[in-house]
Amino acid sequence: MRKLYLVGIGAAVLAVAAGCNNPPGGSPKGGDKVPVKGDGKEPEHGHGTGPHGGTVFDFGKWHGEFRVDHGKKQATVYVLGSDEKTAAPIKADKLVLSVKEPAFQVELKPDPQAGDPAGTASRFVGSHDNFVKEQEFAGTLSGVVEGKPYAGDFKEEPEGKKK
Q1: How far is the C-alpha of 118 from the C-alpha of 42, rounded, in Å?
Q2: Distance of CA 90 to the CA centre of its chain
Q3: In the chain, count of helices (H) and strands (E)?
Q4: The whole model's pTM is what?
Q5: CA 53 to CA 66: how far, in whole Å?
């Protein structure tokens, strides 16, 4: 239990240090552009809808795309490169999805896509009964990738608000 707690703390610290220079307090809402804090020389940074129709968010040096299949009670996270479109296979045994409301966690297992090198995956899948409910989910994705902890926050937006 203590080990899991320490991994979570480390993941949170790295999430703040890594990512796309989003302002303190979290990632931008799916698709909304949020000005970057700092010297004012950085461009605005926002995420649109992902290549699989999901919510794109920062996940360390990558991007993640969160999707739910309510009929299967299943969530899928795709790991994407900096262009937010290209699959970015990573070496991770699992990722953990912590949803805020209702509060629950689900372990996402690697489900390699065609073209992912052996021992890596750019898609992670997990099931939970709470995914049957149609709602906008928000939470945190965390995991250890190649020995380093990473985390990223996501928040789905209603259909009409996606950009």
Answers
A1: 37
A2: 13
A3: 1, 8
A4: 0.72
A5: 9
Instruction: Give the separation between CA 125 and CA 108, rounded to whole angstroms.
Output: 5
Domain ranges of the chain: 2-157
Q: Which two tokens stand for residue 24?
A: 């303190």
95 φ, ψ to 5°?
-125, 155
56-77: b (≥16 Cβ within 10 Å) or e: bbbbbbbbbbbbbeeeebbbbb
| Token couple for 71 | 């009929």
CA atoms 130, 131, 132, 133: torsion sign:
positive
DSSP state of 16: H
Question: Digits of tens for pLDDT over the chain (163 positions)?
Answer: 444 444 444 444 444 334 444 333 333 333 322 233 333 333 445 677 889 999 999 999 999 999 999 999 999 999 999 999 999 999 999 999 999 999 999 999 999 999 999 999 999 999 999 999 999 999 999 999 999 999 999 999 886 554 4
